Amino acid sequence: MMAKSRVTFALDCCDREAIDWASNTGGYNKATVQDVMLGAIEKLFGDKVPEQSIRWLTDNGSAYRAHETRQFARELDLEPCTTASAALRVMEWQKG
Q: Integrase catalytic domain location, by residue (predicted)?
């Protein structure tokens, strides 16, 4: 039986290129997410931070929503944002 692999990745939404990623057979945590963020920024900008803030669209998982992860993103001049959860979208639709 093959072990499941979990992948955390940074994807350029304009050209759909995977900029950086981490993979393991366990779960992922905020350190994994922060490592991928930093790897993506280093690959795109070298040792500099972006001149303008970049919107960083993330999953809604706890590792992405953690205060430390969001603070780390801001230090890299990333603007962390998440999509509304499915439950929230359903509730908003029902209010309609």
A: 4-84
Residue 20 corresponds to which tokens in the numbers above?
């950086």
| Class of 6-95 in CATH | alpha beta
State the pTM of this model: 0.80
Q: Where are the chain's structural domains? A: 6-95
Where residue 46 falls (left for φ over 0; alpha for ψ -120 to 50; beta otherwise) is left
Phi-psi region of 76 (alpha: psi -120 to 50; beta: other; left: phi over 0): alpha
Give the pLDDT of residue 69: 96
- From CA 4, how far away is CA 28, in angstroms rounded? 13
